[in-house]
Every structure is written in C-alpha cells, then in structure tokens.
Here is the input.
Amino acid sequence: MLRGVRSGPRPARTADLPDIVALLEGAGLPLQGLGTAALWVAGVEQDAEAVGVIGLETHGDVGLLRSLAVREEHRGAGIGRALVERVVSEARQRGLRSLYLLTTDAAAYFGAQGFQPTTRATVPEELRASAEFQGVCPDTAQVLVRALDP
Here is the structure.
C-alpha cells in the first residue's frame, strides 16, 4: 500500500473529471485530446478525490503514456510510480509492443522507470499522427520509449 494512499490506481469515472482537470492544469499538462485516452486515478480514500492521474492512448500496436500528474503534497509517496506501473501493465494486457511518451521536464523520472530516449523519427507513423505529436506537446519535448515484454 502506498504511504497515505488507501486506494491504488483504478479506472477513472465521470465523477473524477473535475479532479483530473485540476491535476492536469496544476501540472501544466494539456487537456487537448484527453478524450482519446483511457485514464486511471489514485486517491487517498476509496472513492474520494483523485490525487494522481495517468492516461494511455493506443495507436496500433504501440501506446502513448500521457498526462501523469500527482498533486504536489502527495509526491514522493510512490503514487506516480504506481500509476506508471498500472499503465505498463495495461499496455502489456492489450498486447502493445512498446510505450512512448513526450516530456518537457520529466525524462529522468521516466528513465528511472525503464524509458529510454529516442527520436521522433523512430516513432511509428500512427503514433506521430496523434494530437500530442501533432502540436499538443511542443516540438522541444523529449520522446522516450519503453519496450514491453510479452
């Protein structure tokens, strides 16, 4: 169990939307294209407000991890890591071969979780057509990838 968190990542519900928007806005992350992602949240109490969120978009046989945000006062408690692990697990269950992400400031954080830097040129075409690659994220954002074992 995560320190201070009584509910692990669970699929987001409509009622979580205000918390999700607040988390993403608070982290300076975009809301555009969010409707195409499966979302998970983590909370302090079962069915209470979400203190962390993450998303997964599927594009062919690859995935895009997006929108990881944890409320500042809950950072360092393992919530972000649990959310990333949940998305990696889901991506494997869906049979995806790799998981990509774009970041402007968290490359080291994701590197510690098995993501490696790559270039936009190596990203599969169907993923480059996503909203995040088509302008939601700046061209200066770093691209990272994690190969997924079957």
User: Anything to note?
Assistant: The chain has a mean pLDDT of 90. The first strand starts at residue 7 and ends at 11.
